[in-house]
Design goal:
4 strands
Length: 79
């Protein structure tokens, strides 16, 4: 799972939650960093905030790394 968020506290919490449940997880604070990580190893999914701008960016990241494969995009809202 690739977790993308510019908030360090969100990354920490998601890391604890996912790795505590045995999920192999990578973390990125920025979209470019997420693309570089995903180029090295295709994640099983992408997780990040789903507000309009970030949710759109996550879909772009998922589409670029998927290259015709199915990559799930998960999200969490702030409201």
């Amino acid at each position: 799972m690739l977790v993308v968020d510019d908030n360090a506290e969100n990354l920490r919490m998601m890391g604890e939650l996912l790795s505590g449940n045995g999920v192999d997880t990578s973390f990125a604070k920025l979209g470019g960093q997420a693309l570089r990580l995903a180029a090295r190893r295709l994640p099983s999914g992408v997780f990040g905030p789903v507000d309009f701008s970030h949710g759109f960016q996550l879909r772009i990241i998922a589409a670029r790394i998927a290259r015709c494969s199915t990559v799930r995009v998960y999200g969490i809202g702030s409201s």
